[in-house]
Amino acid sequence: MLKGVIFDHDGTLVDSERKHYGLWVDILAEFGIDFPEEVYKTHLAGVPTQFNARYLVDTYNLPLSADELFAKREIATNATLGKEACPLIPGAKQLVQWVHGRQLAMAIATGAATREVEPTLSQHGFAQYFPIVASRDHVDNAKPAPDVYQYALDKLGLQAKQCIAIEDSPTGLKSAIACGIDCIVVQNDYSRGHDFSGALAVFDRMDEAQNHLAKMLDV
């Protein structure tokens, strides 16, 4: 029986991938690199920042280490994503409120830092729905490892088979599956067309995911 829903954050609840891409554009411009959006969509969207940094250093032969690039990116992230909430994905608030109204347990499991989620909780009024936020700050291994989902399950006091995850990226999908949690994907402009093998269902809109959950609960 379904007892809990665990939401990813970036790209699932909030439309943040454009800002993530823009931050990399600004940083790489300092090295004289024009960073195409298609490269970001194909290789880096929905992937933890540490892996982004490693990929960019290797691909563009940057004159600094992956750790140094990651640190540089963290400064930019703190100045933007850590302060102002990104716009909500269309239908995200309605789905969150619907899940809450069905008295299901709720949590966020994200590859981002907790500080990147805090503006969403405070500025969009989501704190009342998500008492539990599992972030990269709480685990040793980021997505696609299962750690962040296992942390969320532990805090919820539920088993994997009692929950469902909602994700937007292959990286997040792999993380949920590795934890034994069934996963619904709601793809966006940055993840559409990627490989979502293993997903319980793949949708383009949040209301489609809500309809799917409603059918699950009515069975």
From TrEMBL:
InterPro entries recorded: Beta-PGM-like, HAD-like_sf, HAD-SF_hydro_IA, HAD_2, HAD_sf, PGP-like_dom2
Cofactor(s) demanded: Mg(2+)
Keywords, comma-separated and alphabetical: Magnesium, Metal-binding
SUPFAM superfamilies: HAD-like
Short name of any one Pfam family annotated for the protein: HAD_2
Organism superkingdom: Bacteria
This protein's record includes keyword Ion transport: no
Recorded family membership: Belongs to the HAD-like hydrolase superfamily. CbbY/CbbZ/Gph/YieH family.
Protein name per the record: HAD family phosphatase
Higher taxonomy: Bacteria, Pseudomonadati, Pseudomonadota, Gammaproteobacteria, Cellvibrionales
